[in-house]
Amino acid sequence: ETAKEMIRFGDYLSPRIFNEFWFDKPPMYYWLVAGVYKLFGVSDFGARLPSAMLGIATVALVYLAVRRLFDEDVAFWSTLVLGTSLEFFYLAKAAVTDMTLLFFMTATLFAFMRKRYYLMYFLMGLATLTKGPIGLVFPGIIIFLYLLFAGKLKTITKMSIPVGIIIFLVVTAPWYYLMYVTHGQVFIDTFFGFHNVTRFTTAEHPTRVLWYYYIPVVIVGFFPWTGLLFDSLKKSITASSGEDFKNILFLHTWWIFVFLFFSISQTKLVSYIFPVFPPLAILVGWNIVRLTRERFAQAEIVNGVLSFSFLLLFAVGCFIGSNELAEISTSAK
């Protein structure tokens, strides 16, 4: 609807919904959808296409990055796990901003691991144009914590931060500045105050304020690979070494920070936890390769036990979590 109204009003600066200005999110996804509408007309297909294409791009990105960080086998299994997990598949065909954010945030963090810092700052800017300050704050904190835990804080001096700030501002500042000039303080109060600060500190859905809310979400959302998830988290720490351990430490820093942040946040939605899926998929992919390189019989036993355990967990997850998925409407408006 917002993309339709951008076209109808000829205004690609200020998002609207039902003829009213809407300061919920930045415009990146609306721009993408509006572009598809221009090419193919207004339709469900057009609304979903950017998420679908960026879902494919995220899978390709993970494959290329993991092949460099680990090897070909880990890259193959990581992308298979990610691309076929339930929540990834669900959000890759949904007309929401989460897949767009996931792509830019994942690309940002992999750019850091490849030491391509200028590209990293550019991608941070695109993530910030997709869903606000989270596009800067999340990668920034994850990178800082990883460098702290790995004893590499001196790396910060090599990351060209002053130039990075300029790159980031060139990407993000024009839209935020023009929105402030156009709408004044109401934009600051609504976008930053309500949709970022207030949503973190105040529950929008009081029945979901549960410290364990995202545990069943991950259990169900990671289907059909959840049976391997818990063993992978353990073995990635106890059975890794050398360069693999350094990369795995980064992946753990990534998913744990995101998981804890949204567990503390008072407003909770199943899609908020989505950024944990790439690092978890890579950890599972790494563990699958480890298992297959051990004795086949042992791997068979482990997989059998974990798969059976997951079926039980999945049955419970479906019962508990089914009400949390968005309803699907078949009527066109």
Write the layout of secondary structure elements.
Elements: H1 2-9, E1 16-17, E2 20-21, H2 28-40, H3 44-69, H4 72-84, H5 86-91, H6 98-113, H7 117-131, H8 134-149, H9 161-183, H10 185-201, H11 214-221, H12 226-238, H13 242-264, H14 277-293, H15 296-321
Antiparallel strand pairs: 1-2
Describe this structure in words.
Helix content is 72%, strand content 1%. The protein has helices spanning 2-9, 28-40, 44-69, 72-84, 86-91, 98-113, 117-131, 134-149, 161-183, 185-201, 214-221, 226-238, 242-264, 277-293, 296-321; strands at 16-17, 20-21. Helix 4 (72-84) crosses helix 14. The protein is built from 15 helices and two strands. The chain is globular, with a radius of gyration of 21 Å. A two-stranded antiparallel ribbon has the order 1-2. The model is unreliable at 327-333 (pLDDT under 50). It is an all-alpha fold and 333 residues long.
Short description:
72% of the residues lie in helices and 1% in strands. It is an all-alpha fold and 333 residues long. Strand 1 (16-17) and strand 2 form a beta hairpin.
Features:
333 residues, 15 helices, globular, single chain, 72% helix, mainly alpha
